[in-house]
Amino acid sequence: MKTFKIRGGLGDSAVVNTAAKLQDNLYLATNSKWLKKAEIPADRSSINGFVELDIKIKKQLLDDLNDFSSNNKNLPKINNLNKAIQLYQLALDFNKRDDDGAKPIKNDLNKLTSLNSFSDFNRQASSLLLSDFAFPFSLSVFADMKNTAKNALYFGSTESFLPDAATYKDSSADQLLSVFEKQAQDLLKLSGLTDDDSKKCASDAIKFDKRLAKYKKSQEELNDIAAIYNVYTLTDFQSAFTSLDISALLSSLFPDLPERIIVTEPEFLKHIDELINSTSFEELKGWMIVTFINRYANYLSQEFREAAFAYEHAIYGLQELQAKDKHAYSIANSVFGEIIGLYYGQTYFGKQAKADVEQMIHKMLATYKTRLNNNTWLSNETRKQALKKLNAITLKIGYPDHVSDLYDLIEISSTKSLYENLVKANQTKIKYNFSQLNKPVDRTLWGEDTPANLINAFYNPINNDITFPAAILQDPFYSTERTLSENLGGIGAVIAHEITHAFDPNGSKFDEVGNIRNWWSEEDYAKFNELSQAEITLFDGIVCGGLKTNGNLTVGENVADLGGLTVAIETAKKENGDLKEVFQTWAKIWRGKMTPQYRKSIIAYDPHAPQELRANVAAQSIDDFYTTFDIKPGDGMWLDPEKRVHIW
Ligand SMILES: [Zn+2]
């Protein structure tokens, strides 16, 4: 007998079913054949369209790096690409890495183990922070979200051992932390600490980490932009610290002290004194040592890499370490991703593809404009503001014209160890970031997080721009070999998804230049909240892979998916396209498999719903879906019309 779950399609969409009918489960009917054959590579936690493309691009770039290294290919004239290759070679030199063992970290580890009191920590705070040692809070400089032409100083919490504050509340937290603790002990022993010291450090570290996590915001909380923008005067900010000499620390980091600091996690600031003080010194010290060894073990010998694998296995279900050459590529890419991306874009992304994608973006923007004009729930005044924002969206396609001058400052030395080079590079990045405080924001930069060799697309609310790196502009998202309708269901929907982020529950708080500003009438905003709430309710609690989806955590992405697919369908209708192809390509781009560990881990903090549901639930809200495939009440994909959500 059939059971109808209605939301998300029939059955658990993460369970392959080659007999599934499209009317019952769009995702499974489209992808089950592929899913049955697909295998997760042993050094990965998932396989999907994005990962397949990543494997292909990585191989291509790895071949090129090897050719440059052996002089089989001439190095193209791209500033600082030579440094990326030098770093790749250093990372690949396992003879040296294995010979060196723990030697490269000896001095730095010593600095940490010889901290003898809280006042010692206080005295060295500035140098510890600038040296890229783990620090119990973070300071960073980026655009002021209420005046994005200028930079501001932000204060927030720092990394913790489990990936998100929400993960600490899960029943698996203690088990994962005990794997982490055991791994930390192993790494410290390898580094030369005694058994007893390693044990004590690891146990202190876990204690500190648990206290830290208590006051950290979860990803779900961080999604609330209005709540992360809290302006403190310098005096108010400093008064939260009575143990740490924050005034001396800030003066030494910033010769021109800012008058105000934006605090992203006020609760964390409120408890900062309770976290960092002379009583908690030993725990803090243990946490700094363990974070240090855990962060850098991967840059030492193969023995260290292997000893640092247990936690990766436990939390993401990885079966194998990355092969040495892929690992070396990842290291070069972690420092010089923008440069390698520039090389990738200039070499593999043609003018034709750029022109095609640009044309597609303009098509999607035009459909968006029509939809905003025809929108029935916006008042004229808010509609005008929305159109102003839409028209002001800047496009970043393929690869940037130029990258930050940061890379001119990073030096790579072949006579130094891989570890020393990486620490030095990170130190340069920290100093460079701090030096931007009183400088204007350069909005033309793409930034470190969006290199052209990354398979993803982005909307940045503080720039009001959308970025499509060269890497995503190919099969399965886009291909000149495919029909317009197929490309609309792929890259077209992705483009409209990014545009919709300008109008999702987060993006809607930012104006056309990227400032947090309310451009809504009160009534319109109330209506928008009501619609967003309906989208939360639609997703909340749907079971996928045996786990419940969090509607609130994923609402921004779900609103974007709904807008993305709606606009793709509307555009296809205008062009007399084949709607079946649009829906099926949409379902195809979300095909994927992941390890149970990874699924369990990301469900707690990933703002994206499980990919199976992204495919199905967005389609369920679109009326054309029902007519296109003749879906009737009683079918697994059927959703009663009053339950369908229409926003943009
Ligand atoms: Zn998104």
UniProtKB/TrEMBL annotation:
Gene3D superfamilies, per the entry: Collagenase (Catalytic Domain), Neutral endopeptidase , domain2
Gene Ontology MF annotations: metal ion binding; metalloendopeptidase activity
Protein's UniProt name: Endopeptidase O2
Keywords: Hydrolase, Metal-binding, Metalloprotease, Protease, Zinc
Signal peptide: none
Similarity section: Belongs to the peptidase M13 family.
Cofactor names: Zn(2+)
Cellular component GO terms, alphabetical: plasma membrane
Domain Peptidase M13 N-terminal: 23-400
Keyword Transmembrane: no
UniProt xrefs under CDD domains: M13
A biological-process GO annotation: protein processing
Domain of life according to the entry: Bacteria
